[in-house]
């Protein structure tokens, strides 16, 4: 096998490198900067160059090397090429090629252009490693524009009722996606400190975001009037939210499409917005690779692998330590709530 699945992660033995390892290794190739794919402690990191400012904020001073999309680097005779995954800024699929055999480790991905990250590109290969976070037929996303029309209407309604609008979203990826696609004419955008840190990383990667202001103790009650507040899911139920009262609370997540999940959340609204591929997109992505062999990782692995097998693919599930999308962010930078 060109890529082996070990207790340290995806290993390319010929090149002696790991892809998204979940423990410290000598050389790590990183698909994107979410914490389940980019772990601390490796000696060297190779990622798309736009991921480096994010990785620096999350992992601290490490040895980082950047690579462009469609650029190939040779390591011990193995060619590695990074292609856009469309998941978050700097996210990449990694093509591994050796003596004519081609594998693609896709990391996390989505096919719809979010206006922030480089759009997904299909890569032909023999073996495709795919996520399956939303690998059930029930998961079919509305268009991005339809979701943002809903968010804008909710925001406007809150303004009419004299409420602040608070939306919970991952600080890396979804928060910036909301900022770039929302109707900024409605009011100011205020962000939690964790979101602000990721915004700064985007700016360091030469991505211009719509203007936002970090929430600090100096903000008055009047500053929250008509505002849209973007914060990580970890703030739900915390005292941090009291300063926004009265407010309406919303959650942006792919899981919001399930009634049971909505009932368990304390939010007033749920918007079905995910940075992962839905069921139709997963199938489209697999088909477009032309791969005969499909390895299915995190999510509904057994169901999606069986579906693909029934369709004639040589598909199997693989156990990994990747999380996909959860209702609460587990990333350390976001779980440390701002106290100001």
In short:
The protein is of the alpha/beta class. It has helices at residues 52-59, 144-160, 174-181, 193-204, 259-264, 279-289, 301-310, 332-335, and strands at residues 4-6, 9-12, 17-19, 27-29, 44-48, 64-67, 72-75, 78-84, 92-98, 101-105, 127-132, 164-168, 189-191, 213-214, 228-231, 247-252, 269-271, 293-299, 314-317. The protein is built from eight helices and 19 strands.
- SS element count, helices: 8
N to C succession of SSEs: EEEEEHEEEEEEHEHEHEEEHEHEHEH
The strand line-up of the biggest sheet is: 7-8-9-10-11-18-19
Distance between the termini: 51 Å
Give the biggest beta sheet. 7 strands, mixed
Which CATH C-level class of the largest domain is it? Alpha Beta
How many domains make up the 3D coordinates? 2
CATH architecture of the largest domain: 4-Layer Sandwich
Based on CA atoms alone, the radius of gyration comes out at 20 Å
Low-confidence stretches: 330-340
How would the global form be characterised? Answer: globular
- Class from helix and strand fractions: alpha/beta
Do you know the CATH topology of the largest domain? Answer: Metallo-beta-lactamase, Chain A
User: Considering the protein shown, what is the CATH homologous superfamily of the largest domain?
Assistant: Ribonuclease Z/Hydroxyacylglutathione hydrolase-like
